[in-house]
Amino acid sequence: MKTISSIQDLRKAQTAIDNFKVSYPNTFYRLLHLVNFTRQLQFKYEYLCGLMLGKDAYAMQYAPHFVQRSIIDLYKNEIEKIHKHPQGLRALEQLMNAHLEIGYENFCLLVRGKSPEEIKGIYNTRHTV
User: What is the per-residue pLDDT across 98-127, written as a single tens digit (0 to 9) for each?
Assistant: First the structure.
């Protein structure tokens, strides 16, 4: 689901993600791996987040088509690895639920290191010489 979010909402989420990275580094790096893996496979971030959070019915709306079953199984096995960090996973669920207004795609872009300004398409046009 595409969502329109404000720059302020994105900045709040970015700060929360930065705090999560410090508090739960192992879970954060597992999440970053999953986000990058999702991008490389050209799957939708909503599919990742739905599977990761146990929202299978939601995830199936975004499931990739025409992908071999072995690739889907490999992908799901990678997602299961984040469950080895139960405290971090609970904190991640709370973090994602607290920032639902930005949408899963924007959340994942922030995890990947995109700035709120990049997500919104706002760039500083002033150049210093």
Answer: 999 999 999 999 999 999 999 888 765 555
Instruction: Using the predicted structure, report yes or no on whether residue 50 has a pLDDT greater than 90.
Output: yes
Token reading at 96: 């994602």
Q: For the residues 62-79, what does the mean pLDDT come to?
A: 94
CB 88 within 8 A of CB 26: yes
Distances (CA, A) of 3 to 10, 25, 38, 62, 99: 12, 28, 19, 15, 12
The pTM of this model reads 0.87
Average pLDDT for 37-43: 96
DSSP the chain: ------HHHHHHHHHHHHHHHHH-HHHHHHHHHHHHHHHHHT--HHHHHHHHTT-HHHHHTT--SS--HHHHHHHHHHHHGGGG-HHHHHHHHHHHHHTGGGHHHHHHHHHTT--HHHHHT--------
Instruction: Give the position of tokens 């971030």.
Output: 45
